[in-house]
Specification:
- With 135 residues, this protein is α+β, with helices and mostly antiparallel strands.
- The protein has a single domain, classed as GAF domain (Beta-Lactamase, 2-Layer Sandwich).
- It has 4 helices and 5 strands, in the order H-E-E-H-E-H-E-E-H.
- The protein has a 5-stranded antiparallel beta sheet, sandwiched between helices.
- A hairpin with a 5-residue loop joins strand 1 (17-22) and strand 2 (28-33).
- It is globular and about 35 Å long.
- It starts with a helix and ends with a helix.
Length: 135
């Protein structure tokens, strides 16, 4: 069921990749990919505990970046962007359970920046809520 939620989000937005991060250090435990998008599941060289987006989401905030290249002035963040296939735009949404962030849903656009619509941002929140119900 969780995979279907992620696939629906990918299909509805036409993005490049959707991931679910969960567990200690928030590794990618599920991902769905558009044709040609590289997988990031299993990539372990990025320390999510120091990534600015992960820190914001761990604090319970949804992050919406239309142009990820200009979002943060952090060398490790930009290394991560390159490792993740040229991450150009993203929506990163916390999944809450009993008031705690227990997972993270990430919607990625590769290659070129993109302006996310309010509807797409809301779809990410709805997907995170649905996943919370399934966990």
């Amino acid at each position: 069921m969780i995979r279907a939620v992620l696939q629906g989000l990918l299909d509805e937005t036409g993005a490049s990749r959707v991931t679910l991060r969960r567990g200690e250090g928030f590794p990618v435990v599920e991902e769905v990919l558009a044709p040609g998008a590289p997988a990031i599941a299993g990539e372990q060289t990025v320390d999510m505990g120091t990534q600015p987006v992960a820190l914001e989401v761990a604090a319970g905030r949804q992050v919406v970046n239309d142009d990820s290249a200009t979002a943060y002035d952090d060398p490790e963040y930009h290394r991560m962007r390159e490792l993740y296939g040229g991450l150009a735009a993203q929506i990163v949404t916390p999944v809450f359970r009993d008031g705690e962030v227990v997972a993270i849903v990430s919607l990625h656009q590769l290659e070129a920046p993109r302006r996310w619509t309010e509807a797409e941002v809301a779809r990410c929140r709805a997907a995170a809520d649905r996943i919370a119900d399934l966990l």
